[in-house]
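Many introductory courses stop at the sequence. We go one step further.
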Amino acid sequence: MCLIAFAIGAHPGCPLLIAGNRDEFFERPTAPLHRWTPPGSPVAVWAGRDLRDGGTWLGFGENGRVAMLTNVRSAQPGSGARSRGELPLRWLAGHDGVEALADGIDPVAYGGFNLVVGDFPAGRWAWLSNRDPADPHTEGAAPQMQWRTLLPGIYGVSNAALDTPWPKTERLKAAMRQALDQWDSPPSGDMADEHLAQALAENAAVPDVHLPPTGVPQDWERALSSPFVDMTERGYGTRSSLLARVTVSPGTALPLLTMTEWRHERPAAGAHRWSAAPPAITQVTW
């Protein structure tokens, strides 16, 4: 994913809410959100899948774990010896805590990344990165993994450090805050989904004065500044959008996880938006 906003413990009726866009080259083969078991894993996951390297960018384990991944932008990005997409699967299939996860990651083996992990039943959340939060766009790994525990609240991450106030990140966080403020007005979940879907579909670039200095050319920076990215001429853009929420109702023993994914096929000349097919909706008790 290249833009994610998420709320943890911010509303009693919706203890987890996630909205994100995944940006990628059109030629990279990808499977949609589905239930599958990674090789060698004892845990099944609900996630999309990178069919080139086998990893994922956002997933939910049947054990109640969550993992979200974004790349960190730099002028000369290094792909690293290992695929970043394996990192979410490592958390989803594991049983160790965040400290053990961080200790087991070699920061120089991967290109720059942000990894948000959560154990929903335990109420534990953390952010990890192999880049210095004070200077994330300088290529080269930090000497050791960076990580911190996340308390209840609303967070956003794109291609810089967690909660870096890029305009599109702040825009999506504001939409999430508004969706939760209106949660108690029925139909709460449907209204939140509609509001966040509109925010994810926004494709207006921000004024140049507000563009972040990440080292890429200015025209790239401008095209990447909107939540929905359309760089058709370069074969790149928003490939999918996902909304996920966990809801709890009085008298209900188990929380309900609802995942909704829109797939965006390579757009025709000058055209994009949601794909013609209806969104895929998956619901599971968690």
